[in-house]
Amino acid sequence: MTKSENKARQMRRYQKEMEKMERRERFQAKNARMEAEMGREDLVEGRNAVIELLKSDRTTIEQIFVSNGKSEGSINKILGLAKDKRIVIKEVDRKKLDSMSETGAHQGVIAQITPFNYSSVEDILEFAESKGEKPFIIILDELEDPHNLGSIVRTAELCGVHGIIMPKRRNVGVTGTVYKAAAGAIEHMKIAKVTNLNAEIDKLKEAGVWVYGADIRGQEYSYDVNFSGACAIIIGNEGRGMSKLTAKKCDKLVKIPMVGKINSLNASVAGGIMMYEVLKSRIIK
Predict the structure, then answer these.
(1) Domain spanning 121-283: which CATH class is it, in words?
(2) Angstrom distance (rounded) from CA 203 to CA 176
(3) How confident is the model at residue 35, as a pLDDT?
(4) What's the gap between Cα 2 and its chain centre?
(5) Proportion of the chain above pLDDT 70, given as a percent
(6) Distance CA 238, CA 198 (A)
(7) Which CATH number fits the domain 43-113, given the four candidates 3.40.50.2000, 3.40.50.2300, 3.30.10.20, 3.30.1330.30?
(8) Which of 104, 196, 224, 280 registers the highest number of CB atoms within 10 A of its CB?
């Protein structure tokens, strides 16, 4: 090999290394943007959400920011509960709350908390067992919209769901927007974040939990399925739906009847319909 050929090979190797570094940096930047878009997990906004937070001993409240000025209605209730629990209350200008707010609807109060205390999948199964009930679990496959997550949590609590499982990456966490959309239901719901969603699905199946996927490709309608046994319902991403691998993990794909020209439902609406089908199967003997 001549000197010029050796130099050319070294240059190609250098270029490949630089390309690898650029790809890695783009990937890291993309993940950082996604994490920023998912929102903060240490702020809870809105009067009802903060009241439910104060009533619960599950979450540690560091301090509560309240808009200065005349206190009235539920704000007085918040102040009273906070004083009883000896929680620091800070009166601030409303513009300060506006700058802190993710929802744009803080209603004059924002609580700063320790980040949400996630449960484990084992905690969820043990909770169902402690109630003498067959597990009823919701699995979220890369849900991105915090409003959808909040709505799902709210419906899940009303329908008797024992817990929600979601992946650690590419899924919205429990942010202030989620707290507000859930209207206090977060404090009554076990939520687990897992590294490998499909591996956890396999574990659930080994534990006797039947896994259903809400999917337009399903061969059976939701109202024809008997959900009275131990079950988990998978709700897919708002745009992409369930991933192919996750869909293959399902024991059965179930579709929701639709007669309109639009062939898809909002994730939280689809989740709500499926959860009420499960509830109906369990209360009708």
Answers:
(1) alpha beta
(2) 31
(3) 46
(4) 60
(5) 91
(6) 19
(7) 3.30.1330.30
(8) 280
